[in-house]
Specification:
mainly beta; Thrombin, subunit H; 4-stranded antiparallel β-sheet; 3 helices; about 35% strand
Amino acid sequence: MVFIGQRGGTFYALNLADGTRKWEFKAGAPILNCAAYDAGQVFFCDENLYMHCLDAKTGREVWKSERLYGQSTKQYCPVVVNGHVIFRPMAAHPFTEPIVPAKQWEAIKGHITPAGVAADGGLSQPLMDFQDAMVKFYQQRPSLRDLFILDEKTGKEAFIAPHWPSVLALPGGAGPAAFDGKQSIILPWRFNAFNAYWGRLDLKRQRFVEVFAPKTIVGNPDETVNVSVGGKVLFIMHCQEGNCQYTGIYDLEKKVCYDVPGRWERQWTLSDCCQSGNNAASIADGRFYHIIFHDLWAWTSAGGGQR
């Protein structure tokens, strides 16, 4: 079957063999994002910010979430991982104030090595305290969130993730989460307005258990960063107007980042968010594929970024 939503607010299921319509569902608002499929159910979010779970065979609605906070679902899509439906709508508010006090940010600096991994190899107490403060902040001001983790069976919120939201921007500041194949998702995670690290959020512990920073983002926090994971390799695509400073391939085991060949010479074609740079890489047969302005490039997942 093929699942597709349209701007009129109708979600369709088509037969793969001949394209005929199998069923349709009226969501009541435009559908601008791709759907996710898992265990006989299909998930999508409409522009009224409701996540829908439908029975893939019949189109019957299994559940509809509470209304999520945010501005739009444009260019985002749900990710289903280990019983969770994960979604990042475009943030509804510009973020102009710190989530945690500056002194707490200073306290965790010593617990991040140059490679970005927690100094003790796990979750140090300052990093845990930092995340606890973030969760408490969102409990008091829930509308500032832009990351939602729902229970796949019920559509209820599973937990509040200690994330840093994006800001008001088109197409937005944070792409869909990437699954590491185990029990964690990988997200860009800022500690302040202009310094960003990658974080591995453990869905069981409900906290970031590893922070790794092959490079630091130095730029506007409204730039999109898309990620894809294939095996032990993380593909990072930083989308900005002619700047691919955070584009690279990161080895999750060796903790080494490889530059994309010729990225500075081709920075406009690689990362112009106003054209076709704003998309996550697809993975097939050991290669990452990413659509840029004029070309389709492919990198091997085992060769450290060979073109």
